Amino acid sequence: MPPDFEELDYQQTPLGTLILRRRRMRSLDDLEVYEIILGTGYLMSSLFTTVEIALADFALALLPAENKKLSVAVGGLGLGYTAQAALKDPRVSQLLVVEALPSVIGWHHQELVPLGREISTDPRCRLVEGDFFSLAANNGFDSEDPGRTFDAILLDIDHSPRNLIHERHQDFYSLAGLSRLRSFLNPGGIFAMWSDDPPDEDFENLLRDVFPSTESRIVEFPNPLQGIASRSTVYLAQCPD
Questions:
Q1: What is the mean pLDDT of each run of 10 residues along the chain (241 residues)?
Q2: Structural domain containing residue 54
Q3: 171: left (phi over 0), alpha (psi -120 to 50) or beta
Q4: What CATH number corresponds to the domain at position 175?
C-alpha cells in the first residue's frame, strides 16, 4: 500500500516554491489525491476537477457540430484535466497547451501525474513552455506559427480576474488585453476562463466590450473535505461569425 503522504517533486520557480505531492485520504475510502502547491496556496487538486472539465466542455459545445477539425489552445496545464476534456471531443484535431512552469510539463512526460501519459502521447496535443499572458500580448501562442488563430482559447491560470498568481498578469484583464486575445480567435471562436470567485461584474462588462456574446456560468461541485457544495465560475465569450 502506498504511503499516506508523498512529495513527488519540489522546485524553486520565479512564481515561488512549486510542489507536487500525492496523498491517500483515509476519510474518503483511501482515495489517492494529487495536489500542486505554488508558494503558500493550492494551485490544483485531483479531488476537484469538475470546473476544469466544464471549462472545455462548455466552450466546445458552443462551436458548430459540423466543424470536424477544431484547433484549441489552453493556458495552464496543471494536472491536465482541461486538456483531457478537450481531447475527448473527437472534433479537436490540434491542441496547444501553454504552461509557464517547465517542471509541470516534465511531470506529464515523466508520468508523475495520473494523466501524464495520456496527454503527452496524444499526437493531437503539443505542450509548450511559455508565459500565456506575455504570448497573448505579442505574437500569439504558437512560436512555430506567429499570429496563429484558434477556434477556442481556454484559460485556467489565475484564481480569478482579481486574485492573480502574479501581478504582471494584470494587463491581460483589460480592454486592450482582451482585445488582443480576441485577435487570436477564428470567426465564431470561443474564449473561456475559469475563476474560483463568483461572477465579477467589472470583468463581465469588459468581456461585453470586446465580445458580442458573453455569459457567466456558475458550476457547483461537491466538497467532501468540508461536506458542502463549492462553486466556481466559467466565463464564456464568443466572436462574431
A1: 80 91 84 91 89 97 92 97 98 97 97 97 97 97 96 96 93 98 98 97 97 97 81 97 88
A2: 49-238
A3: alpha
A4: 3.40.50.150
